[in-house]
Specification:
Blueprint lengths: L7 H18 L5 H10 L16 E11 L2 E6 L5 E4 L1 H11 L8 E7 L8 H4 L1 E12 L4 E3 L33 E2 L5 E5 L11 E6 L12 E7 L21 E5 L1 H11 L7 E8 L10 E8 L3 H6 L1
Parallel strand pairs: 3-5, 6-9, 10-12
Antiparallel strand pairs: 1-2, 1-4, 2-3, 4-5, 7-8, 8-11, 9-10, 12-13
């Protein structure tokens, strides 16, 4: 079974190449518009099919769910749904290792038939979508105590999880944000990477740190990089590839344990994430500790504030 990132780097670059070829045929669109459209989860309409070479495309971040009619993906707005074909789901599982049945958050791209979807934007529904790219963004949440046998420790620093100052567009997506469910935290993790598939990012919660007087919910990001010795000169630009840049964490169990610890029936209004950074390399001794406060608001609320 392929590890996260091993297949998707090649596949994502291939999709970007196809996009560039398409742009060569459509002078009125810029590559940035295409990239941002897919990133935010907005579809291309009939213009993509202007010369009958390309089908309309839809994609972006989605929450995976099931229903009486099969698997559905709900997009960032919490309302628009994508219904993938059974055949493309099977192919995504066999060719890409996409285990949709136990995935919470994913990044997907697919094509659809306009005759079946005459007005998908207003109808907020894309039917019979054929997946061309699908990857789970889920990573591990660990609830334990400091020093326990299963406690997670840092093996390597990261560059940062707040990369919003480095971009001039969609800044909200380049710093920690919550999905529309307000229980799934997404971290855009910038780190030195040469070997795809060996990096793991665990989010750790220590319940004993919270009580009736300490109501700040703090989570700790731990980075395991195996034997990847990437440097600034050899590292990939992982922010271009969702499968190795965005990591999603289901915090429902954490919030439940937090509420019990502080004696509250409500989830926290914000959380703190602590992480270790070294923008110059992998040396932990030269790294520093940083924290970021994340309001428990959906990405849509954050964008419209």
């Amino acid at each position: 079974m392929k590890k996260r990132g091993e297949y998707y780097i090649t596949q994502f670059f291939y999709l970007n190449l196809q996009t560039l070829i398409f742009i060569g045929k459509m002078k009125q669109l810029k590559f940035l518009m295409v990239a941002l459209t897919l990133l935010m989860g907005i579809s291309f309409t009939s213009c993509l099919n202007s010369d009958n070479d390309y089908a309309p495309t839809v994609g972006g971040f989605v929450k995976v769910g099931g229903g009486m009619f099969g698997t559905t993906f709900t997009m960032l707005d919490g309302a628009t749904t994508i219904s993938p074909t059974a055949a493309s789901l099977t192919q995504a599982e066999s060719n890409m290792g996409f285990k949709y049945s136990n995935t919470n958050i994913a990044y997907v791209i697919g094509t659809y038939d306009e005759t079946l979807n005459p007005d998908p934007i207003n109808n907020k529904e894309y039917k019979s979508v054929s997946l061309t790219y699908a990857v789970s963004l889920d990573d591990k949440v660990l609830i334990t105590e400091r020093g326990a046998s299963n406690d997670s420790v840092n093996k390597a620093p990261i560059i940062d999880i707040d990369n919003s100052e480095k971009v001039s567009y969609n800044k909200e997506l380049f710093k920690p944000w919550f999905f529309y469910d307000k229980t799934t935290l997404v971290l855009p993790i910038n780190y030195y990477l040469y070997k795809a598939g060996v990096h793991k990012f665990t989010l750790v919660y220590y319940p004993s740190e919270n009580n009736s007087t300490n109501k700040t919910l703090k989570l700790y990001l731990r980075h395991y990089n195996a034997d990847d010795k990437a440097t600034s000169s050899t590292s990939l630009q992982n922010s271009d590839i969702p499968s190795i840049f965005y990591y999603a964490y289901d915090l429902r169990d954490v919030f439940t344990r937090y509420a019990m610890a502080v004696g509250s029936s409500e989830y926290p209004s914000s959380i703190v994430v602590e992480y270790v950074v070294n923008p110059n390399g992998l040396d932990l001794e030269k790294a520093e500790t940083k924290t970021v406060v994340v309001e428990r608001k959906s990405i849509v609320e954050t964008t419209t504030d």
